[in-house]
Design brief:
There is one protein chain. With about 260 residues, this protein is α/β, with parallel strands linked by helices. The chain has 2 domains: about 1-45, no CATH class; about 50-255, Rossmann fold (3-Layer(aba) Sandwich). It has 9 helices and 6 strands. It has helices at about 1-5, 10-25, 75-85, 105-115, 120-140, 150-160, 160-175, 195-205, 230-240, and strands spanning about 95-100, 145, 185, 210, 220-225, 250-255. A 4-stranded parallel β-sheet has the order 1-6-5-2. A two-stranded antiparallel ribbon has the order 3-4. α5 crosses α7 (about 160-175).
């Protein structure tokens, strides 16, 4: 019983299970989609240079790369903050981070991750997040990880939620609980990628529902795959802020370029 409580036996069983799965379904490199051999882990070393980690200067709020160090905020965040000021409401979230700039090879990676059942990519993304942002996550006092939810209709069509895959792996590597039921997507919105900022905001109005039990958590980390204008994070953060303001942070795999 003591071993079970400590988690040692459970983790060992998980490792054995992963080993069996990897023999039957070898993991693939998130960049080239080739099979990962026994020597390398998560990604081919030659493929790492094809990804672009987010670098400075960044927007102080969402973490999006900006063109000048004199810019405190990207245009999207400046617009959002002004909206909150005019409406006299709390900011939707406190700060965001991202792993990679959404350019080059990562675009095909994310397409396969979302639509081609390459769920195993999540392990690499989570490991990268831990290596790069573990201090930030700890300093924020994060005690729950919430993936951006998918509407049940879209979930039935696709079979999985890529944000949830990322959140689950991140939870396993950090020991922070993942709670996917605290935020629900109750409105099946149209694809947002072709919409502008105002269209996205209007489309996401009333799209998310937050459980009252979310108040038990002190600091909340929302995770998603791609951050474009921030409308999804804004919408979820706004709903959470109605119940517990000032507690939301955001972490995404990819993020677009700011101005």
């Amino acid at each position: 019983m003591g071993i079970l409580q400590s988690g040692g036996l459970v983790n060992k069983i998980k490792d054995i299970g992963r080993g069996v799965i990897n023999l039957v379904f070898p993991p693939r490199c998130p960049v080239c989609d080739g099979i990962i051999g026994p020597v390398e882990r998560y990604i081919h070393s030659r493929c790492c240079e094809k990804l672009f980690p987010v670098e400075q200067p960044q927007c102080m709020r969402c973490g999006k790369p900006v063109l000048s160090e004199r810019r405190e905020y990207c245009d999207d965040c400046a617009r959002a903050l002004e909206h909150h000021r005019q409406m006299r409401e709390d900011d939707s979230y406190r700060q965001g981070k991202a792993l990679f700039a959404y350019k080059g090879s990562i675009k095909q990676t994310m397409y396969r991750f979302k639509y081609s059942n390459r769920r195993e990519y999540a392990a690499y993304f989570a490991q990268t997040a831990v290596e790069r942002y573990s201090d930030w996550i700890q300093s924020c006092g994060i005690d729950v990880i919430i993936p951006v939810p998918m509407h049940r209709k879209k979930m039935r069509q696709r079979g999985y939620n890529q944000a949830e895959c990322f959140a689950r792996e991140l939870s396993e590597k950090t020991g922070i609980r993942m709670a996917k039921g605290l935020v629900r997507r109750v409105k099946n919105t149209s694809p947002l990628k072709t919409m502008g900022y105002v269209e996205r905001r209007n489309c996401l109005e009333g799209a998310f529902q937050v459980a009252d039990s979310i108040v038990q958590y002190d600091q909340i980390l929302i995770v998603d795959d791609i951050y474009t204008t921030g409308s999804t994070a804004e919408s979820i953060g706004h709903e959470i802020a109605k119940k517990c303001p000032g507690r939301v942070y955001v972490l995404c795999i990819c993020i677009g370029q700011g101005s």
